[in-house]
């Protein structure tokens, strides 16, 4: 969606010309819009806008069920759950859904601003929000837990951990995010679910398109290293010496004035020359710009 949004903005010529003439309007408008959506007492009541990023992640990973009776919660548990209750329905699913949607679209639009913006942390929060919604839904459907020989309680925080790892791994298309999750949470009990979720998410994401970082590189037309070709390709039978330029003009230490002048005449478009110690040994010492050699000859 980020790629499509950027391409849509570039395809709108009138909008592009307007933003080029007024460079500060778009960043100001986006910043004002995103800040207004998390304003406490307003839209922020529907997406836990009163909490910081650290507090949001900490509460999403909490190991107690938000959908149970408030009278059964401790003071600390209620304090963590209270910002996720919308002021009208007192339903945590409304705020969790609003939080997930806001971070999703906010991160997508925020990455288009001409300022440094992150991708990993927003992806982490989106995945944690989706995982928490599923975890709370499972706790609501199975309040007594799952019976598998013995009763296994539903821990919504575990779903949030797995969701954060899976979504971030899919966005960045990396496996190392699993280790980051283990270091952040310190929970080894979710090792297998996190690894399985990250691997599956990576496989699905790689089929849908490039990672978020590769997508930005492609949008900006930056130098991009393509994927490694299959080993059965005939390209492996070619070597660098097969297509490299071998007749490179160079200068060497101790060359005469006439030899230097001749090299400059033969290479009118070359902007620099490699400097070697001797034509027979060809040990590279450095490079000299053409302008420096021309100025030296004129002096």
Structure description:
With 299 residues, the chain is mainly α. It has 2 domains: 2-219, no CATH class; 243-298, CBS-domain (Roll), CATH 3.10.580.10. It contains 13 helices and 5 strands. It has a 3-stranded mixed beta sheet. Strand 1 and strand 2 form a beta hairpin. Helix 3 (25-37) runs antiparallel to helix 6, helix 7 (120-141) packs antiparallel against helix 8 (156-172) and helix 8 (156-172) packs antiparallel against helix 9. The radius of gyration is 29 Å and the shape is elongated. The N and C termini lie far apart (60 Å).
Mean pLDDT figure? 87
Query: What is the strand arrangement across the widest sheet?
Result: 3-4-5
Bulk shape: elongated
Count the domains: 2
Query: What is the radius of gyration computed over CA atoms, rounded to a whole number of angstroms?
Result: 29 Å
Oligomer: single chain
Strand content: 5-15%
Low-confidence stretches: none
* Total E-strand runs: 5
Report, as a whole number of angstroms, the end-to-end distance: 60 Å
**Portion of residues within helices:** 40-55%
Order of helices and strands: HHHHHHHEEHHHHEHEEH
The number of helical elements comes to 13
Provide the fold topology.
Layout lengths: L1 H10 L1 H9 L3 H13 L15 H8 L14 H7 L10 H19 L9 H22 L4 E3 L1 E3 L3 H17 L4 H9 L5 H18 L3 H8 L31 E2 L4 H10 L5 E5 L7 E6 H9 L1
Parallel strand pairs: 3-4
Antiparallel strand pairs: 1-2, 4-5
Helix pairs in contact: 3-6, 4-7, 6-7, 7-8, 8-9, 8-10, 9-10, 12-13
């Amino acid at each position: 969606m980020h790629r499509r949004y950027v391409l849509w903005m570039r395809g709108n010529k009138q909008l592009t010309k307007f933003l080029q003439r007024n460079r500060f309007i778009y960043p100001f408008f986006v910043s004002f819009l995103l800040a207004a959506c998390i304003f406490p007492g307003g839209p922020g009541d529907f997406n836990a806008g009163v909490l910081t990023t650290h507090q949001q992640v900490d509460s999403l990973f909490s190991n107690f069920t938000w959908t149970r009776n408030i009278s059964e919660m401790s003071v600390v548990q209620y304090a963590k759950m209270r910002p996720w209750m919308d002021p009208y329905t007192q339903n945590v699913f409304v705020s969790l859904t609003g939080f997930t949607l806001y971070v999703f679209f906010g991160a997508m639009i925020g990455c288009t601003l001409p300022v440094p913006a992150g991708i990993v942390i927003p992806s982490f929060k989106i995945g944690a929000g989706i995982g928490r919604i599923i975890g709370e839904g499972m706790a609501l459907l199975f309040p007594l837990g799952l019976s598998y020989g013995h009763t296994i309680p539903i821990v919504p925080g575990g779903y949030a951990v797995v969701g954060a790892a899976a979504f971030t791994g899919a966005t960045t298309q990396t496996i190392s995010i699993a280790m980051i999750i283990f270091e952040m949470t310190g929970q080894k009990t979710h090792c297998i679910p996190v690894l399985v979720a990250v691997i599956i998410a990576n496989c699905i994401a790689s089929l849908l398109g490039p990672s978020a970082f590769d997508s930005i590189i492609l949008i900006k037309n930056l130098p991009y290293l393509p994927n490694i070709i299959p080993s059965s390709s005939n390209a492996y039978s070619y070597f660098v010496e097969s297509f490299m330029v071998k007749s490179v003009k160079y200068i060497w230490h101790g060359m005469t004035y006439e030899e230097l002048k001749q090299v400059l005449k033969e290479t009118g478009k070359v902007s620099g020359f490699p400097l070697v110690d001797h034509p027979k040994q060809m040990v590279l010492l450095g490079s000299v710009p053409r302008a420096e050699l021309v100025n030296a000859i004129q002096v």
